[in-house]
Amino acid sequence: MKRTTNKPRQKVPKQPRPPPQPKVNVKQLRDDDPNPRKLLLPPPASAGWPVLLPVQPLVRPASAELDAIQSVVLESEKVLEKLQKQEERMVQKVTERAKDLHGKEFKLPYQKPMPCMPDYEACRACYKEHINDILRCSSLTKNYYECVQRVKQQAGYGDK
User: Fold this and answer.
1) Strand locations in 6-89, DSSP E?
2) Range of the domain at 90
3) Burial of 144 (0-12, 13-18, 19+ CB in 10 A)
4) Contact 116, 151 (CB under 8 A)
5) pLDDT tens-digit profile of 68-79?
6) How many structural domains are present in the chain?
């Protein structure tokens, strides 16, 4: 088998292409067409440039229209002010309600005073004062013990 080698081809200079022809299917608007989907149609064959619609000057609305628009704007502003005031009142009410609920939820329940508190405080003070001689506090300790026993009997926890 004979093996062939790939030889590089010589580049052939390209001939310049002629400029592209303008497209004939340039579309224009037609006002007499009742179907709005078919507004864009190709121009007649004799027209070289696209036909443009004349620029219509802006028509200023009549003063009656301006008055109507201004009245609607003023009414909208009044409604907005009312809504803002209502929102402020609602925020205030919600804040007060939240404070009330928070106070009720985290309020400490009524705590009964500890019975025999004066006897307990006297006994404790005596022990602090007489650290080395606690026998001096025996009468106060006895009073505190008797008070605790009375409270237990009144509550129904007494020795039976």
Assistant:
1) 28-29, 40-41
2) 65-107
3) buried
4) yes
5) 999 999 999 999
6) 2
